[in-house]
Design goal:
The protein contains 5 helices and 2 strands; from the N terminus they run αββαααα. The protein is mainly alpha-helical and 196 residues long. α1 (18-49) packs antiparallel against α2, α1 packs antiparallel against α4 and α3 (108-141) packs antiparallel against α4 (156-187). It is elongated. The chain crosses the membrane at residues 31-50, 80-100, 112-136, 163-182. Residues 31-174 form the Casparian strip membrane protein domain.
Length: 196
């Protein structure tokens, strides 16, 4: 109409309805959850993978000269921490690939395959975080019955960085669980979700 009267059309687009905004936000939620899970698992793998600390102790005194030995704690010393780093790295790579290829996932079969992959990755992350947490607890408190002494009193920063890595990994597990719940709700027929 404006063009007929010689006026330029207005530059303001038509306002969005509430439903359109809601649909856009719901569409972004899985992307934001997946990006957050990618960040959490990448941080967990990187922090634990680079975690290393040395400690020098006097082991004997010969004459007046002390003999020292350097002890080094690193994630490669414990198979549980190695599994933790590998599990978080796999989860990071998986989430990166899914984010890069999310436009290709359109059909119901592709969404179901993605849902199954999310479940496998969540379980991989959960087992990796649980095994590393059990070893972290052993390193912090030791085991008096087996005569294993705690080591966090000597390798404090190693234990602190490992704890931060564990927290980040458990956040990744929680985000993957949220993704699984959203995916299950999206793949369920509406009548079942509504309780009919």
């Amino acid at each position: 109409m404006d063009l007929e009267h010689g006026k330029k059309p207005s530059a303001h687009p038509a306002p969005c309805t509430v439903q359109q905004v809601k649909d856009k936000l719901i569409g972004l939620r899985p992307v934001m959850l997946r990006a957050s899970a990618l960040l959490a698992t990448t941080v967990a793998a990187a922090v634990m993978g680079l975690n290393r600390q040395s400690y020098t102790a006097v082991v004997a005194i010969v004459g007046t000269k002390p003999l020292t030995q350097t002890f080094t704690a690193q994630f490669k010393d414990t198979p549980a921490f190695v599994y933790f780093v590998i599990a978080n790295a796999i989860a990071s790579l998986y989430n990166l690939v899914v984010l890069a290829m999310r436009r290709l996932v359109q059909g119901r079969v592709q969404r179901l395959v993605l849902h199954m992959g999310d479940m496998v990755i969540m379980l991989l992350l959960a087992t990796g975080a649980a095994t590393a947490a059990s070893m972290a607890e052993l390193g912090k408190n030791g085991n008096l019955h087996a005569h294993w002494n705690p080591m966090c009193d000597k390798f404090g920063s190693f234990c602190n960085r490992g704890g931060l890595s564990l927290v980040s990994s458990f956040i990744g597990v929680t985000l993957m669980l949220a993704l699984n719940l959203l995916s299950a709700a999206a793949n369920t027929p509406r009548g079942i979700v509504a309780g009919q």
